[in-house]
Each structure stands twice: as structure tokens, then as C-alpha cells.
Design brief:
Blueprint lengths: L4 H14 L8 H14 L5 E8 L2 E12 L4 E2 L5 E4 L4 H14 L25 H5 L21 H4 L21 H14 L3 H10 L8 E2 L14 E2 L3 E3 L4 E3 L9 H4 L1 E3 L1 H12 L6 H7 L4 E2 L2 E2 L7 E4 L5 E9 L2 E8 L4 E7 L7 H13 L7
Length: 368
């Protein structure tokens, strides 16, 4: 999918004419134009957006293609993407259920549940893992695109012998291995596979019918007739190529789920509607942890912060092989925003931030 170099300049100036600094072009119209331009400028192969406002669909639309070769259009309700680290809020919701059931204590040693994990210089808890303050290392080398059919338990061989980066509770280091360990502890505590517990406690009760775990074979399948996997791409200097093969089964909790944009938005709405457990339990997860009385801007599996305009949110950004995702819940505005892209990090977060701002500043009627 190459494009003549001169046409990029034409697209840029056309975009400036449409968007520019025109204060009359605002809200959903501007959000729509921004997303359209990401596709026409070949920044991304495709994107789905689903916005819920006051509990109702407000802005849902697909842009670009689920498959470039076949020109298959994106649909927010039926196109299934890799959601990368947006898997963490799903896993965190399941962990919250396990805490409520008394199967796991957040402040108990991880070794209580997984005694066979190699002992480190310091002990660490489930809460420290969930908040990325346990000192576990992140990916090294090619581990980001690991393509091995590991079970969750088998996968700890990749990183189990590494020293902790710091004394738990004294630092912050974001990584997905924390959630591999949490999912292992959850399996040991419940006695059932992690994905089965997630399905029983999160996916089925909330009606998330288009949320799926990665397949252990490394080849993902969608059984539902109305749904279709997007093709997963990586960006080249000009154009896109199919992403390298990866197997995300072992890191389901940290980055291994697939979903539609509408179902990710539905998860956020369940939190706003207080359909997920009791508030005291959930507040532990969507409240920023503190280090030396300073916020880390991360709770337990959820990013917790404020945007550039000071609006509070919780949610997550995800970046994995063949997928990039944004998921934000704005409680004060009663808005949920989910955006999924079928491409490894396309470096468009600044534009996505603009889209979010325009959506939050917009007024009815919706488009799409």
C-alpha cells in the first residue's frame, strides 16, 4: 500500500483547509474529520470508535479497513481487534471479584498463591503486582513479540530468574509480566483456568459477547458468525505490512484479549452504572496508588489520571503487535470512549487525544 510522496503534501494541505484552526469546526464533526484523516493520510489501516454518553450510544463509527487487501470496512460492533493492555482492566475486574469472594487478599504475599516462584531478595504482594510497584522487570529483546505456545504457568520461565528492579513499594515500573503473575495466582486460588474465571465473572455477566481470549495455538479464531477478526498490521516507512506472528495466550491478563470497540465501551459503562461489585471494592482498583505520598497515576490494572484539561478519568492505553487501543471512562461527564486500531503503535496518540477532547466538548446530535 504505497502512496506517491507528493500526495502526502496534498493530503496535508487539504486537511488544513478542512480542520485548520477553524473554531466553527468543533465537537463530533471535528472528531469525525480527525479520524477520517488518519485513514486518508495512511497513518492507520483502520479504527473503530464507540462512545457512550449518559449510558446511550453517542458516537459509533468505523474508519478504514479491517483488511487492506480485500478493502473490508471496519465496523465498531463487529470488527474484532487485539486490545493489548486494555486487557488489564478486564483482568482487574476479574481480580476484584476474586477479592470480593475472599479467594485472594491484595495485601498477602504472592508466594502464598504461587510458592514455586523463585524467591527474591524481597517479598511482594498481589497489590504491588497490580500497581506495578513490585519491581518485576519488563520485556527484554524479542519478548515483546514472543511466539511460543506457553501456558500461563510455563511462561514464567521467561522472566522468573530475574532480580527485582527495586524493593517492592519503593518504585514504579510498568510491565505486563506483573499481570502474568497475577493471572497465575488467580488460577491457583480458584482452581480453574484464568480465562474461564474471567468468562464466568466478567464476560458473561456483563454481556461482553465480543470479548475473546487469545488462542493458545497462536492462531485466533472467532466462532460468532456476525463478528470478524481484523487483519493485524505493522507500519512501515510508507504503508503497512502484516504484523509478525505472536502468541499472546500466556499474557492474557496483561495484553492477550481481543474485542470490539462497542464491548470495551460496555465494560466502562458497567463501572459507571455500578454493575460491577460494591463501590469500596472497586475504588481500590480505580484510585491511584501512592509512592512517598505522590500519585503514580495508576491504580490496580487501571490508569487513573486527568487529561490536559483537568478532567478526571480511569482507563488504559494498549500497544501490542498488530493492535493499539484507547479506553477511557470519564465519570464526571458520564462518558465512555473506546478506540481500537488494527496496527502496532502507529504514533497517533496526539490525534486520538484531540478526538477525545472534541467528543467531550461536543453537543448532540451525534453522527455515525
Amino acid at each position: 500500500m504505497k502512496k506517491p510522496f507528493l500526495s502526502y503534501f496534498k493530503d496535508f494541505f487539504a486537511f488544513k483547509r478542512v480542520i485548520g484552526d477553524d473554531v466553527q469546526l468543533q465537537g463530533l464533526v471535528k472528531a469525525d474529520a480527525l479520524l477520517s484523516h488518519l485513514v486518508t493520510a495512511h497513518k492507520i489501516p483502520g479504527i473503530a470508535i464507540s462512545v457512550l454518553k449518559n449510558g446511550a450510544p453517542y458516537f459509533q463509527k468505523g474508519y478504514g479497513f479491517a483488511d487492506l487487501e480485500n478493502q473490508t470496512p471496519i465496523h465498531p460492533e463487529t470488527s474484532v481487534f487485539r486490545i493489548a493492555s486494555v486487557s488489564k482492566p478486564i483482568a482487574a475486574t476479574a481480580l476484584a471479584h476474586m477479592v470480593a469472594e475472599g479467594l485472594i487478599d491484595l495485601d498477602t504475599s504472592f508466594y502464598t498463591y504461587v510458592p514455586y516462584f523463585p524467591k527474591k531478595k524481597w517479598d511482594f504482594t498481589i497489590r504491588q503486582l497490580a500497581s506495578h510497584t513490585a519491581g518485576i522487570r519488563g520485556y527484554l529483546g524479542k519478548e515483546y513479540a514472543l511466539n511460543k505456545p506457553y501456558s500461563i504457568k510455563e511462561s514464567i520461565a521467561v522472566f522468573k530468574d530475574a532480580d527485582l528492579l527495586f524493593k517492592p513499594g519503593t518504585g514504579y515500573h510498568y510491565n505486563s509480566y506483573d499481570w502474568v503473575l497475577i493471572s497465575l495466582a488467580m488460577q491457583e486460588a480458584s482452581g480453574i483456568p484464568f480465562e474461564d474465571y474471567v468468562s464466568k465473572k466478567v464476560v458473561q455477566p456483563l454481556g461482553l459477547n465480543s470479548v475473546f481470549p487469545a488462542d493458545r495455538s497462536g492462531v485466533d479464531h472467532i466462532k460468532a458468525n456476525k463478528l470478524a477478526l481484523t487483519t493485524f498490521y505493522s507500519k512501515r516507512a510508507i504503508g503497512f505490512r502484516p504484523a509478525v506472528a505472536v502468541n499472546n495466550y500466556y499474557k492474557l491478563a496483561g495484553g492477550g484479549y481481543l474485542a470490539t470497540a462497542t464491548d470495551i465501551a460496555k465494560l466502562g459503562q458497567a463501572y459507571l452504572d455500578k454493575k460491577v461489585l460494591d463501590e469500596p471494592t472497586l475504588m481500590q482498583f480505580i484510585t491511584s496508588e501512592l509512592l512517598d505520598d505522590a500519585p503514580t497515576y495508576y491504580g490496580l490494572g487501571w490508569q487513573v489520571s486527568q487529561d490536559a484539561k483537568g478532567r478526571s478519568y480511569y482507563g488504559h492505553i494498549g500497544n501490542g503487535v498488530g493492535g493499539y487501543s484507547n479506553f477511557f471512562v470519564y465519570p464526571e461527564q458520564n462518558v465512555v470512549i473506546a478506540m481500537l486500531i488494527n496496527c502496532t503503535n502507529p504514533n497517533v496518540q496526539e490525534t486520538l487525544d484531540q478526538v477525545i477532547h472534541e467528543v467531550l466538548e461536543s453537543s448532540p446530535p451525534p453522527i455515525g
